[in-house]
Amino acid sequence: MNYELITVSLYVITALAGLWICLVRPQIFIPFLVLLLPTGNFSYEFGVTWTCWKLLLVVLVVTLPATYARNDDVRGRFRLPALLLPFLLAVTASTFVAYAHDQASQIVSGVIGFDGLRGPAVRPVVQLLSLLLRIFVVVAVVAFVRTENAIHQVIKAVLIASTLVSIYGLYQVAGYYMGWPIMGIQRAQQDLSGGYGIFVVAGREVFRLGSFVGEPKEAAKFLLTSLSIIVGVKVLGIKRLPAWLTSYWNLTLHAVALILTFATSSFFGLAVAAPLVGIVWLGFIRRSRVQTFLAATVVLGLAVFILIRAVGTKEAERIYDARVVERVGEIDSPEGAALRFIGDHPNTLATGIGLGNSSFYLRPYFTPDYYRPLTVSLNSSYLEILLEGGIAALLTLAIFLIGWLLRAMRLAKQLPRTEVAAILVLLVGVSLIVAANGAFSSTEGTGQIWLFWGLLITACNIAQARRNSQIPPLKAVNIRLVRRTAPRKPEMVVAGSNSSF
Fold first, then answer.
1. Among 89, 168, 206, 226, which is most buried by a count of CB atoms within 10 Å?
2. 213 with 222: CB under 8 angstroms?
């Protein structure tokens, strides 16, 4: 079978479908994009690779003028959020400043194994264009998702995508041990022949769930956000979503799949953000919903307990040591190198070293054997932004994130406890999960983080419009009272009411 032909055919079909949707049905473009988000750096063992969501974004960008001209309801909608523009300018400036000094190519003159798009001459521009493409997700969401029903459609697509990731991931884990045909990870680390999907416990290979999203930590990001959505839908009483997607069975499926990714960054992110998310939700809901929150927590706990018992307590302890205790020690290597580099070159905090240049600047500061075939990325996206974009980039991104979170929470408190406010609180919680996970994993590289921030901005706009349309009829109430108590003078009351408005 010609697998290269299959790959090309998939790309062509996706591009044509995206082109048709952009020009004819732009309102369903974002759900279609979300369903393709899980496609990543995974390939079948014979070479079929799927990375369709970036292609679909390119199609949207290319067809944007035609879409803008054809659809009146889209005109004027493609705008970059104001708080995001300073971050983009800071990162762009730091990248071009790095090119002007040409420091990266001098530092890595002896580095072997970097060529093509990963070389110091090309990688910063590639990273910048990739970031621009991902930020465009925010712009596209704000442009196309303009109603409550559209937000429900996107959330539904997110849950469908993560459910597919969970189901195929479990098949993948079983298939690895049973010898079934599965999709495998394309890239491999030097000391692990099976790549990211394998780690060794007491001389035994343990396969990590990754599905077709790429690395296991990428799969964990999808599962982590959907876990938060399912629990939030139940706790906040959101009704207009399919029951099977928000059932306890699907919650259990996501929990088991998340555990089998063995992605320590997502576990840490969940541990840090979950208490704050719980406080936000419990502060909004009625007391009767606390039982639902506790029920969801019990389901998650039972899923963990059953999985541990199925694996075996001793084996679970070994896996914990291998993926948490030893992994924390490994994390210190690139992060420690970044801190030592900043200590030796404090001036870089002002200008940054340019996107993607961590792979080149940090190599003299630690032994890169573990990362030799790969580019080096820091486990903390915030530290990576500080190093590559400087203080200005980190501050502007923090202003963007914190600003919209605070605005969303204020609007949720001002609105009646309707489903609009519930969705707003739900997206606040999911965004907090994604933002906290960024402290332990480089989440700025995925399109999903920008998707949820775009949804949060959209929900804020809808909530603000809903709030502005709610004119309290206090004077009208007083007028009706006057009419009841003094029916003999209706003319004066009507005149007074008109003059008051």
1. 226
2. yes
User: Residue 101 and residue 56: Cα distance in Å, rounded?
Assistant: 35
C-alpha–C-alpha distance, residues 389 and 385, integer Å: 5
> Amino acid identity of 350?
A
SS (H, E, C) 413-443: HHCCCCHHHHHHHHHHHHHHHHHHHCCCCCH
User: With contact defined as beta carbons under 8 Å apart, do 14 and 55 qualify?
Assistant: yes
Total-model pTM: 0.85
Cα separation of the two ends of the chain: 75
Question: Rounded to an integer, what distance in angstroms lies between the CA atom of residue 42 and that of residue 193?
Answer: 16
Three-state DSSP state, 206: strand
Q: Count other Cβ atoms within 10 Å, centred on residue 255.
A: 23
191-240, pLDDT tens digit by residue? 444 456 777 777 777 888 876 766 788 888 889 999 999 999 988 989 88
Q: Are 183 and 11 in contact (CB under 8 A)?
A: no
Residues facing 201 on adjacent strands:
204
- pLDDT tens digits for range 226-240: 999 999 998 898 988
Residue type (1 letter), 273: A
Q: Amino acid identity, residue 454?
A: G
pLDDT tens by residue, 306-354 = 888 887 888 888 887 777 777 666 666 778 888 888 999 898 899 898 8
Beta-bridge partner residues of 50: 42
